[in-house]
Structures are given as structure tokens and as C-alpha cells.
Design goal:
There is one protein chain. The chain is of the alpha+beta class. The chain has 2 domains: 2-81 and 224-260, no CATH class; 86-220, no CATH class. Helices cover 23% and strands 33% of the residues. The protein has 2 helices and 20 strands.
Length: 261
Amino acid sequence: MDASMWVAKTGLSAQSTRMTVIANNLSNVNTVGFKKDRANFQDLLYQRIVQAGSQADVVAENPTGLMLGTGTRVVATEKIHRQGNMISTENSLDLAIAGDGFFGIQQADGTIAYTRDGSFKLDNAGALVTSSGETTIPQINIPQDALSINVGRDGTVTVELAQGGGAVQVGQLQLSRFVNNAGLVPLGRNLYAESNASGQPIVGIPGAQGAGMLMQGALEASNVNVVEEMVNMIETQRAYEINSKAIAAADGMLRFLNNNL
């Protein structure tokens, strides 16, 4: 009977982990470029009491066998890299990626991170940076006498200079693609790092070789669907409750044995 309580306990632990994943999704519903997580479950090892196909007697074989499961666990959390909705901001420094790809970001320690968050700013030197002050790769510098900034769908950055200076190209944004986006390691601050699972970055111009195109004056919203997450939350809560009832039922059966035998 204690085995059933242990199996139900693994269910409680797994559903609690799933609830944590759902809560993180809901908390990031307004995070620019956020990609929702999904908890993947896996059943645990089985106790093989009778092996399927073993001899039942001299002639017959057991067609199914007797194997008792030992519970479940969350084996992985997976980022769902589905396109989020586009939000118009009319800010020339806001860039959204329509399609596959990530902006390359130079971190303070010299390593490269990747992001879908295109809410860029200008630092005191005119460099294009993230909200945390980290520069893009390649670095884009905007002249101080620029009147306006235009970013093409292919990542070409041009500015209109003051005093009739005309339009001048100041840089070319690039996007990095990965064979397995789900293998990227989330770092926080809307950043990802490559891993052995994601593969090496494939760097190219937006709109070429499968990379998405850029949309100026827009941001990509989180791809979290609140209604879907609420349904998942209710489902998780009910599963947690039924596992707790299984423990209570097993405890009641043991109490009955102790009191009556």
C-alpha cells in the first residue's frame, strides 16, 4: 500500500513543477519576445512482476504480463518558439522579427547572447544597445546629427542627416538562426545562449536563407496565450488534487487494516 502512496507523491511533485512552469508563463505575458515553456512528462521505471511473453505453463505464454508503474516525473521544459503578435509602437528604435532568427548581443563578459527583444535604445555615444546597455552585433552607431533613423526589412540602417546631409547608410543588422531553437539556454533579461543542443548560429541578412524580416516601429509580444494557460492551470490543479486524494485513500486503507486486523 505504501507503494501507491509513493506513486501518488511523484504525481504531486510533477504537477507542482508544471504549475511553476505555468506561473512563469503567466508572469511573462507582457514580456517582449518571451517564448512560453512547456513541461514534458515521462513515466518512471516499472516493476516487472510477470514478464510479457513468459511461459505461463508448459504450453501457454503470458500475453501481457504484470508490470507495476512507479510514477511520473518532469523530464524537461521546452521553449515553444511560436511567433508572437506584433505590437505597433511607432518608435523608430523598436524592431520586431517576423519569422525565424535572433538579434546577436555582445555581453559585458565578451560572450554573445541572442534575443527576440528588439526594444533598442541609443547610448551616450550613439550606439544601438538593449535596455541593459549591451550593444548589438554588428555594432550600429548613429551619428549625433541624424534627424531620423530608418531600418529596412533586410536590416539596412540608414539615417537622414541634418542640414541637407541626405540619407547615409550607417550599418547592416544581422540575424542568427539555429537548427534547434528549443536547445537554446534562457539566461534571463530576454537573452538566450547557444548550447550543444541548439547547434552553431547561422548568421545572415534578414530575409535571406530562411531568416525572418525586420519590422521597424513594432515589437513582438509574448506568445503566451492567457486562456490556454488558465486551462492548463485548472487541469494541473485537478491532477494535483486527485493525486492527493489517492494518498488519502491509501492512508485510509492502511488505517482500516490497522484497526480491523
